[in-house]
Recover the amino acids of this structure.
């Protein structure tokens, strides 16, 4: 009797490890949970918090703007198999919403913009670039933490500890950004960028948005000659010295505006729609925000390129 219990316990252990080695069903055998993240920002949070507890697919790659995206068949398969799909939300990933309509399983999607106070742009559109302020990024991390803990409860402790560490870094970055921006005199705080993606940063840290080369929140619509002319006039009237381009946007138009006005186009790009490549220092949310603060600080003070 006793022998057979021991033997079946051993058999059970062997079976479990065989199943684990084969991959088995990920959520039921304690293996990594299949998770999809849409943007590089959401992906970096999921990767850092989830660690080994998740098998992560990030749909957007560094350097790609996030508004228009074509899902590949491989992306579709990852979406289909995911237990949890983390999206940035606030109207950014209409391409994911379309895919979910086809694939189904909407209850697997968690929107990290929930509970965040969204701003509207000058043309009354909801501005989806809310991750551009550290306080919002912290709310985003908290939502991702809760969703990941729900999907992978066995890993709750580690997820919670890693979330605390990331929140700590974002709080430190927030303080450093405020110090940097405080060093810029009030009359030099006027910002001209490629596309209107800095609104949350500008509101949070006390800068002033003057205009953007692409007039809308989206970069899919080209500016008209008249839009460019108006921007050139604004730059001249406000004595703006520096224009900033963004990593995921073609800088040609910004270069032309800089040439026309005599303003300097900052050598260093801002990261807005996308984080930087791994190792760039802008490949985490806190790193990206600090990088942007340094580029704006140096460009607006005229101490950088
Ligand atoms: Zn954008």
């Amino acid at each position: 009797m006793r022998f057979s219990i021991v033997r079946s316990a051993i058999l059970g252990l062997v079976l479990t490890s065989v199943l684990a080695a084969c991959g088995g069903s990920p959520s039921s055998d304690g293996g990594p949970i299949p998770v999809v993240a849409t943007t590089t920002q959401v992906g970096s949070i999921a990767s850092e918090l989830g660690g080994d507890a998740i098998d992560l697919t990030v749909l957007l790659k560094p350097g790609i703007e996030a508004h228009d995206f074509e899902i590949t068949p491989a992306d579709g398969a990852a979406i289909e198999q995911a237990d949890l799909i983390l999206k940035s939300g606030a109207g950014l990933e209409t391409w994911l919403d379309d895919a979910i309509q086809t694939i189904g399983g909407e209850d697997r999607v968690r929107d990290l913009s929930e509970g965040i106070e969204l701003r509207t742009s000058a043309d009354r559109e909801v501005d989806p670039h809310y991750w551009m302020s550290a306080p919002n990024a912290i709310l985003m991390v908290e939502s991702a933490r809760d969703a990941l803990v729900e999907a992978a409860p066995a890993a709750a402790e580690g997820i919670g500890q890693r979330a605390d560490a990331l929140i700590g870094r974002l709080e430190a970055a927030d303080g450093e950004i405020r110090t940097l921006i405080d060093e810029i005199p009030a009359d030099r705080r006027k910002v001209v960028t490629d596309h209107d993606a800095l609104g949350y940063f500008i509101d949070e840290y006390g800068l002033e948005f003057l205009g953007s080369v692409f007039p809308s929140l989206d970069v899919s619509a080209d500016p008209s000659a008249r839009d460019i002319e108006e921007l050139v006039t604004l730059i001249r009237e406000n004595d703006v010295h520096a224009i900033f381009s963004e990593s995921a946007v073609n800088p040609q138009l910004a270069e032309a505006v800089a040439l026309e006005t005599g303003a300097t186009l900052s050598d260093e790009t801002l990261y807005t729609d996308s984080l930087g490549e791994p190792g760039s220092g802008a490949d985490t949310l806190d790193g990206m925000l600090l990088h942007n603060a340094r580029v704006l600080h140096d460009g607006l003070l005229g101490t950088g390129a």
Observations:
- Residues 156-182 form the longest helix (27 residues).
- The chain has a mean pLDDT of 88.
- Strands lie at 33-37, 54-58, 84-87, 109-111, 190-195, 208-214, 242-243, 264-265.
